[in-house]
Amino acid sequence: MRTHHRHEERESAAAPRRTVRRPEQDPGAARLLGLQESAGNDAVTESLRRSGHPGLLHGAPVQRAPKRGHEESTEGEIDPLAVSMLGEPLGHEDTYKGGRGRKLPKDREQAACWEWAVRAATDDTGSTHGDCWDYLTSMPFVDDSKLDQLAPAVKAELGQLRASITAAGLAFDPDRRRPPPEGDVEPFMERSVHAFVTSHGLRIATGRPAAWIVCNYKVSAGVAAPDHFWIELPDPNTGGRVVLQTVPDIPYVEAGGPELRWHEKDSVKERQSEHEEHRKIEVPVAALKGRHTQIINSILERGRRTRARAGRA
Length: 313
Hints:
disordered N terminus; 8 helices; globular
């Protein structure tokens, strides 16, 4: 999702990036639909860094047969006791930027937020975040062939959505000086996020969701790539939600209460910035990936080991 400078409001270290040769006038530097003047260049570059924009990361959008543990889970495999433990403040520790929660294992330290949310921090299925929104917003110098290995139905859906965005006048425009009306942008952001989630093999829930893939985006950015992705689970104890998220350069998945969300007025103080300018999109899914389930349920085994050590003491 992005290329970033350091910023005191968010994660401290930028992930290493491979240099990509582009024309001197790089439209990617103003990728948020030419609205850097309204959004602010610092905000744009910080937002790009947090989500690990694949314009500077390697990784082709290859649709492969899922590896063991990466396939979609069957409904009900996430243990409610594990979710309860993750949401319970007892046992939480300091994480980052004012947060307190549990620290779950993360397969790749440099994995970005979206990679955790839709890939369980693996890199073997679906389109990258940057490729998807660069294509949908008709960014210059986009290599459309990167989507050729997606399932035909998924690629067709993305093509139809791209045409609709263009017809609505919301595609990339370097001469745009004002953000489009929020009411024009919202339905296309909803459709874009749903398409991105399903392109990774996750199914939309028609009944009670097993989880939600959640993201937020800055209103002034138009139909541009979201700032941040995460997962939320229903908390069987409180009826609320448990948040699970990560960012590049932290070696864990952070799990805890709704106060860990970014850009919301009820979040911890360090994460409330620009909450008036951000909107949230939730995609209910019938099941997460198998690796998601393994990581979430691993808290139970850690609890058993802790109790065993206490019993021997």
